[in-house]
Amino acid sequence: MKDDHFHCAVCDADLPGRPDHDAVGDLVSGTVVADERPFGPRIRLDGDLASTPAHIRDYPWHGTRADAAEVGQRVTAEVVSVDEGRIWLSLAATEHPHLWTFLKGLRAGDVLTGRVADIQNFGVFIALDEGPPHPTYPGVGFVTIPELSWKHFEQVSEVVGVGQRVRGEVLAFDTYNGEARLSLRALRPDPFQVFADEAKVGQQFPGVVTKVVPFGVFVRIADGVEGLVPTEDVQPGDSVQVSIVDLDRDRRRLLLTRVR
User: Fold this and answer.
1) How far apart are CA 123 and CA 145, in angstroms?
2) Are 149 and 115 a contacting pair, CB within 8 Å?
3) What residues does the S1 motif domain cover (predicted)?
4) Domain count along the chain
């Protein structure tokens, strides 16, 4: 395990296991007392937390938000974060406690297996081998497009297909959607870093133009390695000779110049 700290990719909050407040992870109850902009419905919690402002961050996936938190309504929710003295709650957690228990038990760096359940233009759903199914989505695991592969691709089908078995590294517990955010590429060597181990400024390579953009063209000079050339007199598919001008390992950026 790399870390016991979870960060919600959607809500931008620190989550269990390393809570930012003793109340994180607790189940609390209270009454909706007002609709407080811009934070949304304000909950007056029972007991010692009554004086601390509390609001709903993660709503149930069924029905409307208004139905879930009408003024005067009693609610039971899980504390997902405490930011600057304001408590944020999840109604989805208490609606699906088995799913939340499973997700909170995961840690960043854990490796999960499963099969590709559905492919969308915003990412890939993974039906995990362990844990409960998702009540709404095709799978509890979710991989965003950039986390599928280190290599450039035009179509997701170039990387994975529905029904395919996959292994992914856990990045975060997404409380908004009730998902384990995964990375497939994290379990594979980064071809850019492998290339950078041997490459140096001034070194020349043959390459192929892969994409034309307003500020130049991208040229592939090795498998999974592309760099930017600030020129506009070539087209995709053209063969060119280029030289390395700058190589930024941290940002995975490669600046090239054309050698004529």
Assistant:
1) 5
2) no
3) 25-92, 109-185, 202-259
4) 3
Find out whether 87 and 48 touch, Cβ atoms under 8 Å.
Answer: no
CB atoms inside a 10 Å sphere around CB 124: 28
Whether residue 100 is contained in a domain is answered as no
User: In this structure, what token pair is assigned to residue 239?
Assistant: 């063969």
Look up residue 188 and give its two tokens: 């594979």
| 203 token code pair | 């070194």
For 86-190, where are the alpha helices, taking DSSP H only? Answer: 91-95, 97-104
Residues 27 and 77 sit within 8 Å (Cβ to Cβ) = yes
* Tens digits of residue pLDDT in 15-74: 433 334 457 889 999 999 998 888 889 999 999 889 999 999 899 887 777 888 889 999
**Lookup: tokens for 64:** 């409307």
**Cis amide leading into 224 (omega within 30):** no
Cβ 119 vs Cβ 162: under 8 Å:
yes
Over the stretch 41-55, which tens digit does the pLDDT of each residue have?
999 999 988 999 999
Residue 140 neighbours by CB under 8 Å, 6+ apart: 99, 102, 103, 126, 127, 128, 131, 132, 133, 134, 178, 179, 180
Residue 192 inside a domain? The answer is no
Q: How many CB atoms within 10 Å of residue 36?
A: 12
Domain of residue 133, residue span: 106-187
Q: What is the CATH number of the domain that holds 163?
A: 2.40.50.140
Other beta carbons less than 10 A from residue 138's beta carbon: 18
129, 162, 187 - which closes a domain: 187
Residues facing 82 on adjacent strands: 87
Whether residue 90 is found in the same domain as residue 116: no
Of the candidates 74, 95, 116, which is a domain's last residue? 95
**Burial bucket for residue 20 (CB in 10 Å: 0-12, 13-18, 19+):** middle
